[in-house]
Design a protein that fits this description.
By secondary structure, this protein is α+β, with helices and mostly antiparallel strands. Helix content is 34%, strand content 14%. Helix 2 packs across helix 3 and helix 3 packs across helix 4.
């Protein structure tokens, strides 16, 4: 779960998938029987829905409507111990707030370049909110989802707007 750790173990396969139209574009959710395993930014293949994916789609709709501030879905990302630790820390960043790559590195006992790469490898973007990590000096930093930094800027502006914080222009 995004607010409760640890993550579930990843399944051997994730046979379920569902494409969801959002303001960020088409997002395809992937899941096993018990947990979400990935979110991709374009339709990947034909839908094979499940009750969990229907719940995740409803939660994404609520998130983009500004009514859901924290996801409570079972997640099972596949990664190294280091990646799982960094992704778990990402889930602790509150909605509408950001931290720097340097701060994330300090919190996880590593270096900023390593956490930047781990953010880029995040298989369940938005739900594991790597968009909430920015570069030092107020710079946006990179983003591997959607349209790159433009998608990151839009997600941060969306959260700031719905959290009542001064928003970046969309």
């Amino acid at each position: 779960m995004t607010h409760g750790l640890p993550f579930l173990p990843p399944p051997d396969e994730a046979p379920y998938r569902l494409a969801v139209e959002t303001p960020a574009g088409t997002l395809t959710l992937h899941a096993g029987e018990a947990a979400l395993t990935a979110l991709s930014w374009h339709r990947r293949s034909a839908d094979r829905p499940s009750p969990l994916l229907a719940r995740a789609a409803a939660d994404l709709s609520a998130y983009f409507a500004g009514t859901l501030k924290a996801f409570d879905l079972p997640l099972a990302p596949r990664g190294t111990a280091h990646e799982l630790a960094v992704w778990a820390e990402l889930c602790r960043i509150p909605y509408g707030e950001t931290i720097t790559y340097g701060e994330l590195a300090r919190r996880t006992g590593t270096v900023a370049r390593a956490v930047g790469g781990t953010c880029g490898a995040n298989p369940i973007a938005i739900l594991i909110p790597c968009h909430r990590v920015t570069a030092a000096g107020g710079q946006l930093g990179g983003y591997s989802g959607g349209n790159g930094p433009d998608s990151k800027r839009r997600l941060l502006a969306h959260e700031a707007r719905h959290a009542g914080i001064f928003a970046l222009s969309p």
